[in-house]
Amino acid sequence: MNQLRHLAIRTEEPEKLVAFYKEAFGFREVGEGLPPAQVQGSRSFHLTDGYFELAILGNVPNQSPNGLYHFGIKVDDMDETARKLESFQKHVQRRPADTSFAELRVSDIDGNLMDLSVHGFLSYQPVKSAKE
Amino acid sequence: MAQIRHIAISSDDTEKLARFYKEVFGFRQSRPTPEGQRTIYLTDGHVELTILENTNQQNSNGLHHFGIQTDDLEDTVRRIEKLQPGKPIVRPESNAPGNHIYLSVNGTLDYQPVEKYSYLKKK
Questions:
Q1: Superfamily, domain A3-131
Q2: Structure pTM?
Q3: Any idea what the CATH number is for the domain that residue B68 is in?
Q4: Crossing angle, helix A14-25 and helix B73-83, to 10 degrees?
Q5: How far is B58 from chain A (nearest CA, A)?
Q6: In chain B, at which end, N or C, are there fewer CB atoms within 10 A of the end residue's CB?
Q7: So what's the ipTM on this one?
Q8: What's the CA gap between A89 and A106, in Å, rounded?
Q9: Taking CA atoms, what residue in A is nearest to B62?
């Protein structure tokens, strides 16, 4: 079964927001990720309730609004999911196979951004992957 | 342990968007749409994805809020008040800016009435 497992929020003060979710809700940190090349200098953090990942992304360049950014679905079969997506929309672009992030970034038919991943959002370690 | 169990998206065409999530990801409807409304409640079996009807188009379509199921609502509210002294905790119908978090001890996949609070970031 495909599972909703990830939500990302952008903020200018990720450390402050991380502290809020840890102290208010007891979420724990699973790893500090490195940002994509185009946003070097930003900071991102990955929290979890044990099942679901809440990513707090640094919005350093301020090229986009702060707030709810995208959500993620752990999919059982990426090829089958991509085929179904293509029945609704023309263009589905995959990320490089060695990406440390979700394998696919797409939008739904309303334009809401989604990350799709077979490996999921807690089973990989962004820091370790980036250093290897 | 508090759990993230709810994501809500606002849309002009809830039926079309719900069909997308059903057909592409196999999500199923978790509860009936209230009579006279067009909001559609989907689930993957653990997390609820609500497609909210953007009735009067006073807000943008898109990600609207998320929900956290808490073990103890009052204890959570006290912690939030301690972290954000002097800031109001109000009912969620407000259109104030910030990341809205709906808290519930009953969860969002059952039919029980839920008591909701909204944490509002400082303007």
A1: 2,3-Dihydroxybiphenyl 1,2-Dioxygenase, domain 1 (3.10.180.10)
A2: 0.80
A3: 3.10.180.10
A4: 150
A5: 17
A6: C
A7: 0.82
A8: 10
A9: A112
